[in-house]
Design goal:
Blueprint: E1 2-6, E2 15-19, E3 29-39, H1 41-48, E4 64-72, E5 84-88, E6 97-101, E7 105-107, H2 114-118, H3 121-133, E8 142-145, H4 151-163, E9 166-170, H5 176-182, E10 186-188, H6 195-202, E11 208-213, H7 218-225, E12 227-235, H8 249-257, H9 266-272, E13 275-278, H10 288-304, E14 311-316, H11 320-328, E15 335-339
Parallel strand pairs: 8-9, 8-11, 9-10, 11-12, 12-13, 14-15
Antiparallel strand pairs: 1-2, 3-4, 3-6, 3-15, 4-5, 5-7
Amino acid sequence: MRQVWITKAGPPEVLQVRETPDPEPGASEVRIRVEAAGVNFADVLARMGLYPDLPGIPIVVGYEVAGRVDAVGSEVSKDWVGKEVVALTRFGGYSDVTCVPEDQVFLRPQGMGPLEGAALPVNYLTAYQLIVVMGGLRRGETVLVHAAAGGVGIACVQLARHVGARVIGTASASKHDFLRQLGVEHCIDYTTEDFEPRVLALTEGKGVELICDAVGGKSFSKGFRVLSATGRLGMFGISSAATGKSRRYWDFIKTIAAMPWFKANPVTLMNQNKGIFGVNMGRMWHETKRIRGWMDDLLDLHAQGAIKPHVDRAFSFADAPAAHHYIQERKNIGKVLLVPG
């Protein structure tokens, strides 16, 4: 099989394609011939040596794939063989063959191709946890979605619109027309505008009930200030720490230091009737039944037409460095994928 390896911490060029023997599925695993693999910002942080859950480098990363089952372990029904599936992978997704526990594999709905399939699991599970499970967003409320044109951002917008919420999104100006077509009511160009006064003006000083923030740093501070009473701030990333394409510990420290821990203590939260929560799908692997339930809900919403992943570009394994450059340069609208061929 062919895999994309992080050979050492560094810029995208440290990604290399290597060949190794095909794996054999364990007793409770299925083996998937991968047609597409998702690229996530966690992969970028891992490549830079900034992802805390990374077992070590060299490593093959990747959290989601779509493909066809070609073999199963002794404890798995042979009915899986030949099925088109999507799957969650705890690393190892950047491979053209991968073995995955059966309980992390889902049948791909009829009509869903491999690119769309690989674009769904991580982004939409993250958004579902942010919007529905922990954010508790309701009809008539307002949500501020940062990086609204990214994979998770688009998923958040679609889920928010489905529940009947009003959406404010931040993104560079070139992405605003796309976001308006998705139903974003107000777009803020984060490169030229300070979102804090703009959000307060748009909400007549009230603030928003929910924020989905993958940026961190100063964005966290401003977001906390624009929460309404009963408002919730959901953190699911810290992209402002990745200012370059190689590891810079000082930038990471500065980003963390800009987050007002002393202002968000329990007494402050209680007195202001505000909440802060975090979402990290990489720490949810033990919640198998819960994740399967969320995925079932998402596949139902997909069947209803309420959600639909937007695939921006698919890069070959050989072009994996270009895929990481593309994401870090904020060029993508929606999902970036890797395909073996």
